[in-house]
Amino acid sequence: MAASVSRRPVGIAIAVVAAVAVALALLLARCGTDGPAPTAPVTSPPPSATPPDRTAGPRVSPFTGLPGRTGPVLAVKIDNVPAARPHTGLGAADLVYVEQVEAGLTRFLAVYASQQPPRVGPVRSARESDVELLRQFGRPALAYSGVRSALKGFLQDAPLYALPPERAPAAYVRDPGRPAPHNLYLRPGRALAAAPDTTPARDIGFRFGAAPPGGRQVDEHTVRFPAARYTFTWSPDGGRWLVSLDGAPARTTDGGRVGAKTVVVQYVTVRPSAYADRGGNVTPYTETVGSGTALVLRDGKAHDARWSRPSATGGTSFTTPAGAPLAFAPGQVWVVLAAR
Fold it and tell me: Taking a C-beta distance cutoff of 8 angstroms, is the pair 182, 253 a contact?
């Protein structure tokens, strides 16, 4: 009986503490739901909110001068003999380079960063001088159908993602309605999936804006290669230079008539390389590092210009004869690499 009396105060104390704890918990809970709003400002969104896209917003392509988001650089070597026409996906390119190949013919090196059309082609083989030309883009992806065996190691060791069909088989498809070898087409999205660390679009020296003063009014300009002819005709309605190949209007299967806002005829050294094709025709090497003269066609006028590219890793700048930067018209740019 004495032992029972001595434990009673302890039990009462425990009960009191428990009651106080329950009351305090209820009070805190009520304060959390009905209490006053905090006075400090909220500086971060709640966990359920979507964080802002810090990469969104207006951008300007360094290749076209047009606003819009750009992605990784994909260059595609495109066939240009009559059997390869009409082309597919050419109108979606940011830049189109025209290069001389064997027997005085030409091929395109189309550069994509702003758009990825479903299909591009027909795709043909790469050349040694493509590596020098593409160095200014960082480490781009290069899609091509193949290359002479002596050049395989050279391209694979170059600072680019070499993407022939054997390296990215899922990126290529044959068109049964066209004769080989002019029926191989690239699917750009799948090609870039095989080159995850491709360099994004960056400054390569081009400038865009108002036309420089002066210039000659020109309705048409023709550039001749030993076995190819390009004619650029000014279209005031479309505000671009319509392209004709060997006297016939150039068209695409997916975009209609081919045209460019700016055409640059860049006069370069074209010399024989150490390689030849199966027919014994020597492969030309087009030098794009150095300096020289150029002709810039924009807004229905022709402007004399100079170009300079001191190193392979640097961009190519174009200036007036007096040395002022020569701005291109925003839009697709064609660069015709013509022999001096």
Answer: no
Q: Residue 51 burial by CB count (10 A; 0-12/13-18/19+): exposed, middle or buried?
A: exposed
- Classify 19 as helix, strand or coil: helix
Using one digit for the tens of pLDDT, what is the confidence trace for 199-257?
A: 999 999 999 999 999 999 999 999 999 999 999 999 999 999 999 999 999 999 998 99
List all residues 6 or more positions away from 4 whose beta carbon is below 8 Å from its beta carbon. Answer: none
* Nearest of 167, 244, 165, 159 to residue 197 by alpha carbon: 159
Please determine, for residue 10, whether its predicted confidence score (pLDDT) is greater than 50: no
d(CA 258, CA 235): 12
- 313/293 Cα distance (integer angstroms): 20
Q: How much is the pLDDT for 42?
A: 31
| Per-residue pLDDT tens over the stretch 62-90 | 999 999 989 999 999 999 999 999 999 99
Nearest to 179 by CA among 255, 122, 252, 117: 122
pLDDT of residue 149: 78
Do 230 and 98 contact (CB within 8 A), yes or no? yes
CA distance 104 to 108: 14
Task: Give the mean pLDDT of the chain.
Answer: 85
